[in-house]
Amino acid sequence: MSRTSKVVLGLSVLLTAATVAGVHVKQQWDRQRLRDGVIRDIERQIRKKENIRLLGEQIILTEQLEAEREKTLLAKGSQKS
């Protein structure tokens, strides 16, 4: 084989190996990104459930507070009369 053909063959092998390695790395990166997306979705769902639970508690506490205020106002109103 001539020197030129050896260089061309070497470059072709090197470029092919680099392409295969690059595709492999990109596939691994894509898979990891998909896994991370699923994990983020699960965490988001958990936070949403927690926020809904806290909102329910706040609604109950607000209703209790408003009822207490109304009782206090009624009690003060009947004391003045």
TrEMBL record:
Keyword Transmembrane: no
InterPro entries attached to this UniProt entry: Pet117
Signal peptide boundaries: 1-22
Annotated GO biological process: mitochondrial respiratory chain complex IV assembly
Pfam families in UniProt: PET117
One Gene Ontology term, aspect cellular component: mitochondrion
Keywords: Mitochondrion, Signal, Transit peptide
Keyword hit for Transmembrane: no
Protein location: Mitochondrion
Similarity remark: Belongs to the PET117 family.
Protein name: PET117 cytochrome c oxidase chaperone
Native organism: Papio anubis
